[in-house]
Amino acid sequence: CVISDMEVIELNKRTSGQSFEVILKPPSFDGIPEFNASLPRRRDPSLEEIQKKLEAIEENNNFIKTAKEKLAHKMESNKENREAHLAAMLERLQEKVGLGEVGELGSSFSRVMESQEL
């Protein structure tokens, strides 16, 4: 049996199956154009494309800068709110317990809260 690009030779025919030998022919380059092995030339970017890329980079940098500023502002306001809340809790504690014991409790409470920040 001969197929266009390969030759099949029957070797053994048994009840358990058949065995074949397949011989592939070497490729022929008749009628097929040669492919250019070099990569296509990369065109030089125009001044407009360079300007667009620089503007995009600047916009990205500005976005990052504003995001960092917003985060810093948010963290600062959270810290101020936390300190105000702790001060209010200490004030309520002073009203309930009295001034004598609050000095010790307030200092120990503030030490505990500072250790939680770390």
TrEMBL record:
Keywords: Coiled coil. GO terms for cellular component: cytoplasm; neuron projection. GO terms for biological process: microtubule depolymerization; neuron projection development; regulation of microtubule polymerization or depolymerization. It comes from the Eukaryota. Pfam families: Stathmin. Residues 47-74 form a coiled coil. GO terms for molecular function: tubulin binding. InterPro entries: Stathmin_CS, Stathmin_fam, Stathmin_sf. Belongs to the stathmin family. This is Stathmin. It comes from Cyanistes caeruleus (Eurasian blue tit).
